[in-house]
Amino acid sequence: MTPLLWTLIAIQIAMGVFDTFYHHEFTERLAWRPSQRFELKLHGIRNMLYALLFLVLGWLEVYGVLALLIVAVLVAEIVITLMDFVEEDLSRKLPPSERINHTLLAINYGAILVLLLPVLIAWAMQPFGVTVVYQGLLSIAATACAVGAALCGVRDFAAMRRLGRMRSVPAAGLVEKLPGCKTVLISGATGFIGSRLAASLSGAGHHVIALIRNPAKAEMLPPPVTLITSLDQLAADTQIDTIVNLAGEPIGNGLWSEAKRAKIISSRIDMTGEVVKLIARLDRKPEVLVSGSAIGWYGLWADQVLTESAKSHACFSHELCAAWEKAARPAEELGVRVVYLRIGLVLGTEGGFITRMLTPFEFGLGGPLGTGRQWMSWIERDDLIRLIAYVMATPDLTGPVNGTAPIPVTNAKFTEELGRRLHRPAVFRIPGGLLRRIGGGFADELLLGGQRVLPNKALSRGFVFRHETLRSAFEAIL
Length: 478
Fold this sequence. Notes:
By secondary structure, the protein is an alpha/beta fold. The chain is built from 16 helices and 15 strands. It has 2 domains: 163 residues, no CATH class; 307 residues, NAD(P)-binding Rossmann-like Domain (Rossmann fold, 3-Layer(aba) Sandwich). Helices cover 52% and strands 12% of the residues. A 7-stranded parallel sheet has the order 5-4-3-6-7-9-13, sandwiched between helices. A two-stranded antiparallel ribbon has the order 1-2. It is elongated, with a radius of gyration of 27 Å.
């Protein structure tokens, strides 16, 4: 075992650790994606093989048939990796950084094999036997790597079993309140909310026209769906019953620099303006425009209960939502019923803000933000889809409608309930001062501020939430 070989193994370990934690855990969150059960199984088997290899190469020299068994393990690793590549391409879209990392891992692994196989072949030519060889820090490091790989394997198998217990509600049943066969245009159709809405409508037999900016994401939408990349592709005689406008730059994926704020606002205003222009040139106007908005419209009110009739406080979130709603208002003058859906914090494991919390909480590193007294007005994603369908089917429902569950909770209660559901402590409080220094207005409004919002319009019209309590929502999605 030469120093060069150990160097290449160390590089392989470093790239593997990066891939596991950055991609698998934090960005792709494979442990919470039911579609990735088989991929996690492959990862678990491969990690256990790595643990075996690290222990053997760190402490032993094996001869005869035993050396051939190590060669067989190396070959098995190649087969599993090739299966993993195929599974990844079939079940998810890999980010560019993960593809690059996988390429580098494959090249480096090939170099390791070039150096390691002659050693193993030489050992295989000798009589059967085992020799313990202590290599100092290398043996200790190999043991640490073996333990780490084994723990990752256990994690993969445990996550695979958990995903097997998770059951998703059939999408088609979420829009049962929508009668007949409707044609629905959705902007933002590949987003966390839009993709589930599209699947629900198409599954129930409605015709979905999905406006997507990135054709590569089209595979996220189950057929039958009509895909367009511009509203100009729709002729004036196109029959559209409902438009659901959800498109916009994400607000929670980066700090609010001046450029970011401008992009957040312009993405919503420009898209909504395009929707209004489409309505103006359609021969037959749609029945309703469900225009996206958010509870940020109300601003920050501490503990005050907020319904659709509440006033607002000035802040960036209000400026954004007010401009977004204003851009949709001309559709009313065209004779279209307009509903401004003021959406709260949407819960689901396939996207939304909670996906950033699952990994730290699962590793016991979760806890309240600041004082924890700020209110979190949430809604489970399928309840939001049901509410959108209810809005479509209720002709006299207009103006602002709060898309939140009836029982908001404080941040402290939210983190406590999430920790309880994951069977983990939630005691690592993040100081508010630190968050403000790092995040500025982003932290003040999205993390440390909050709104205590109630869905009065939905409740008064008879809409029934399946998940009124946070515990019920977590039991459904986790």
